[in-house]
Amino acid sequence: MSSTVVSMKGVAVERSGNTILSEVDWRVKNDQRWVVLGPNGAGKTTLLQLAAAQITPSAGTVTLLDEDVTNETDAAELRPHIGFASSALSRRLPYGESVLDIILTAAYGITARWKEEYEDIDERRAHRVLAEWNVDHLAERRFGELSDGEQKRVQIARSVMADPELLLLDEPAASLDLGAREELVRLLGGYAASPSSPAIVMVTHHVEEIPAGFTHAVLLVGGKIAASGRIDETLSSSNLSSAFGVDVVVESSGGRFTARAK
Ligand SMILES: Nc1ncnc2c1ncn2[C@@H]1O[C@H](COP(=O)(O)OP(=O)(O)OP(=O)(O)O)[C@@H](O)[C@H]1O
């Protein structure tokens, strides 16, 4: 049965006197896979930080997994149930740590192994999750020695290790070469297609990075939602042209999208 995992009503975020998001009304259900698009500075990462319970709104209400997020205590309780992969978070991962430990520490919500005793069941799950993201063969390697593409897949494996109810991905394919991008997009598409996967929200700059099977899209412009809804309807040539201020043609084939200037 589908249920709402993210609900934002009349949400605004202000920082240093600037309004970064305003009038945001948005709902994500557990069987939906969303992509967030918009020009640089539109507020995409800020929207994801709200959904990750990393920040609280300046106005309006944010409800995550049926809990209102009004203060730091609410947010701290919610965070273990939300998977979040972003390059800002990955910079905090210890580069000398083994891939297996990077994944295992996620089970305890920490970024470095100290003296924890892990259960066999955690290790088995870690290997299963690594295999799911096609990095199990790298389990004993140091995280910092991996290629960008391998590191991105380990970050996502880490963010799903604790079996989250909501998975948030901030530009997971940024800086990847074509082969690594396509490998990641294929794996994300497979993950998105599974009914047992959580709700997913992915921020990206490029429609080519949207995996097949994503169901919804939201376009942010100047901190406001310019369009949102079913992906095919929202990612229209006219919506993207007006969001990015350039005349583009958007095409889709086999569930994937391309965009190019007219
Ligand atoms: N702590 C802060 N204080 C003041 N302004 C901030 C702060 N954090 C972000 N901003 C501003 O808020 C706006 C939205 O930032 P955000 O990172 O959410 O946008 P974005 O759409 O993810 O951008 P990009 O595509 O460039 O990553 C930007 O203009 C940014 O400079």
From TrEMBL:
This is ABC transporter ATP-binding protein. It comes from the Bacteria. Gene3D superfamilies: P-loop containing nucleotide triphosphate hydrolases. Residues 6-247 form the ABC transporter domain. Keywords: ATP-binding, Nucleotide-binding, Transport. SMART domains: AAA. InterPro entries: AAA+_ATPase, ABC_transporter-like_ATP-bd, Metal_Ion_Import_ABC, P-loop_NTPase. The keyword Transferase does not apply. Pfam families: ABC_tran. The keyword Cell cycle does not apply. GO terms for molecular function: ATP binding.
